[in-house]
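Now for a sample.
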Amino acid sequence: MPCLRLACVALLAVLSMQAQGRTLQARIAKVSTPVATLEQVRVRLDWPADATEGELTLQAAAVDAADLGYRWRHVSWHCPLQRTGPDSWRCDGVLRSGRSKALRLALDLGAASSDAVLSDGPARFAVRRSAATPDLTTLDLTRVPIVWLQALLAQAWSEGQLKAGTLDGRLSVETPTGRPLRIAGALTARAVALETADATIAAEHLDGRFDIDYRKTPLLTLLAVDGELRGGEFLAGSTYVALPDSPVGLRIDGMQRPGQGWQLPTIAWSDGDALVAEGSAAFGPDARLRELDIRARSANLEPVRQRYLSGQLALFGLGEVALDGAADLHLQVQDGRLARADLALHAVDLRDPNDRFGFGNLEGDIRYASNGQVDSELAWQDGKLYGLDFGAARLPLRSNDGILVFREPVVLPMMGGRLRFEDVSLRPPAGGEGLDLRFALDIDGVDFGQVSKAIGLPAFQGTLSGRIPQARYARERLDFDGGLSMRLFDGTVEFTSLALERPFGTAPSLNADIAFEDLDLLRLTEVLDLGSITGRLDGRMDELRLVDWTPVAFDAQFRSDAAAAKRERVKQRISQRAVQNISSVGDASFVSSLQGRLIGLFDDFGYARIGIGCRLANEVCRMSGLDGDPGQGSVRAGSVRARSEQDGFTIVAGAGLPRLNVVGYNRDVDWPTLVERIAAVGKGDVKPVVE
């Protein structure tokens, strides 16, 4: 602390004055030292006659140590002054500066040296100067709060704010006339925390040991740091680093000119076989990265995700992905933009712990250049996406003026069929814009039976085909133009307005419209174990929205297609078991011209039409049937009025003899309850309700 030296200088001035009497006062307009300047100094010494000690009071309106960044106001120090030898003195008392916390300052002044100790509890900052080397000051730090060095840090990094931690070590401060200020020595840091005002850079619990060499002239500042980090974590933008307890070697050489940002000609990082990197960087006056050229290698990717990549991967919902294998990276940034990136993968396995995706034995290169053209190729042996297995593939890549494209279409074997990707282009994040991915997709002959089994659906049989002329992924949203067509139960299912948000992030959501046409009801009900219904079915599910793969909204309507059944000469019949299951799910009852006790005597019944609908919103399913949705005036279950067909909505309109209708009464059904009923149907836990 420069104020310690200033106190020493002021005390020397007083003691050197020739005076008589018991009280001595002095006013000094300005005291200058190589380290700092003291202004408007007032010194008072009270020494009673025949006393062994006196009382010293030193006050200064301002203390400035511009080179170190310190500036104090309204400094005062009061202490008992004792003679400890013919030419030595000691004063130990309380030091205050404005409203700052009071500290204790002890000063030992002799002919050959001067020593000062600033302390606050266990924290101790000792300063020593020798008359033989007047330009050299030695600083000893013991559990010194790192916040005491805030002003010094601001000289090199104005945005950084020290928050917590302690320092131990020894520094030497050299202030020779006409030569640079130099601070050099070794420091040990414990539990250091810091951050910037905008929180783009932050650190917690950092431990480390460093050799430091800092030099400053009016035209140039130099800094060299060489040491190791042990544990702790820090954040720089979206890059989050969680350091291991084992030592991580760090070396930085930096230089800064007035009005310019820092240039780092040397950066070296050594974390065992997890990550070794070296390169250079340059920052603008606003501390933003302007230039970067760095080469890195990982011989063991397993710890890299947790230590270095979790922040970047989390932007894409991949924060917990498991990595194995090795990789090399060469990264160049010019004028604040990514100029070149070369990534080489060696037998890399990439797996999502939630089984959303996975790639086995990734091998090859991904090369990107913002200008010009460069080719590369990446391949994998096997893969998986949301339970769907796909085979080996080779990606022929080309970077063309900042856009990464496929040099040719890529065919991906999948579930007995294939996916064909065309017109693939990927633009990396740049200029405030995030990643932008576009492609066209052909789906041909994918076995929907294998797909349904993989994703936990009943054993549907059919094939999935279609073309998506363009898909775009940007801002964590994947939008599809066109649609997908699926042959299912001898009919067709069309998917349109497809959009997927946060596909690998938290709570992924899917939006779609789905149209069903001419589904074979017999094959459908057999697979669903619903009973037996013959005929054909059409329907729509508009504005479907799944959040975390759970339905939260849709407007669905399903109707039997009598014309298609007649055209194909299929009788429209419904089994007793199917009636009972539909009644259970739809909160409906049997209504028949025959007495209820006779219904159970028949195995199946003819029907003219079947229709059921559900509009889901806020976990409530608004039910409807062949009659549509009559609105708020409908009679609901629990009404004091007697139930009748006119009160409810018809789900099954019977035909022939015996004639049986199925009528629903509760139009508003709790969605979780409805799901439970559907599950009960699958388990066979349903009993008929006959009225």
In short: The first helix runs from residue 2 to 15.
